[in-house]
Amino acid sequence: MPYSPTAAQENDMLIIAHRGASAERPEHTLAAYELAIDQGADYIEPDLVVTKDLELISRHENELSGTTDVANREEFEDRLRDKMIDGQLVAGWFAEDFTLEEIRTLRAKERVARIRPANARYNGLYQVPTLDEIVRLVRAKEVETGRKIGLYLELKHPTFLLEEVGIDIVDLVLREFRDLGLGPDDLVMIQSFEVGTLQRLDKRSEFRLIQLVKPEDGPADEPSMRYTEMTTPSGLEEIADYADGLGANIAMILNPDGSPTTLVADARAAGLPVHAWTLRPENAFLPPALHGQGGDSGRGDQTALYRMLAGAGVAGVFTDDPKGAVSARDGR
Q1: Mean of the per-residue pLDDT values of the chain
Q2: CA 21/CA 44 separation, integer angstroms
Q3: CATH 3.20.20.190 is held by the domain 7-62+128-329
Q4: Does 254 score more than 70 pLDDT?
Q5: What is the pLDDT of residues 110-133, one digit of tens each?
Q6: Rounded to an integer, what distance in angstroms lies between the CA atom of residue 306 and that of residue 41?
Q7: Which intervals hold domain GP-PDE (predicted)?
Q8: DSSP three-state, residue 114
Q9: Is the pTM higher than 0.85?
């Protein structure tokens, strides 16, 4: 059955640039963030990890080889490690084993080059950005564009960092915010898959907090909990005690036939707006019914998926393609 969201529903939806305009530039680079802002994103979404000397940098994971050229650097061969992170054995090079000066020598690369070969043309051009640089970029673009641009930050593996490395990313983020002059009145949201991290932030700050959930598993810091239980009506009421919104996988918001589940309505009843992740333009990431030509890397009908999400009543959408999402919101 087709969905016909009202204009108000579509126009109110936040466009959150997932790792920047990552369908067009290597993710978590200043180039990806700037392009996303130029394309009209309301928020950019950096993921934060920490260096050995306690600097906050933006990477999808603390493991660096998926998004940088570290594996090709002979000088860092001896940094290869195996680590147990959130119950998974991961092999690679980890941000917390490098100083910022060493990170500066690395260059970003496209993470999914098979699906986004055009992005691979930019491999080797961009450094790994710090939170300070991202904030300075946002402030410069606010002056240039005359509009406010939000920061939607994800804290990666906070319990692992605290218990296994001895780094408290909550302390680091709040201290950095103070140094940067960021306060609760700014457009800042902080998200995490973990519960205790958000509860600590709730007690120590007034920033808007978003509980991330997905169809499988549960929070790394609460092994007995499952996200499916957390997103029942009673579970959502408990989330509302410490968080201001819910960041949910699309599969929890839409049934396989595209009709909405009860999640958005249940979350709204608990006072939690829902932000959906992640809207991507390529066939590889879209339901089969929305595929276009060109195999996995070809572009499908992401606008139809956007409209389904709008019809389900989500308050925002994470997207790798801010330009496409803004066009869908504006009816273009």
Answers
A1: 95
A2: 9
A3: yes
A4: yes
A5: 999 999 999 999 999 999 999 999
A6: 15
A7: 13-329
A8: coil
A9: yes
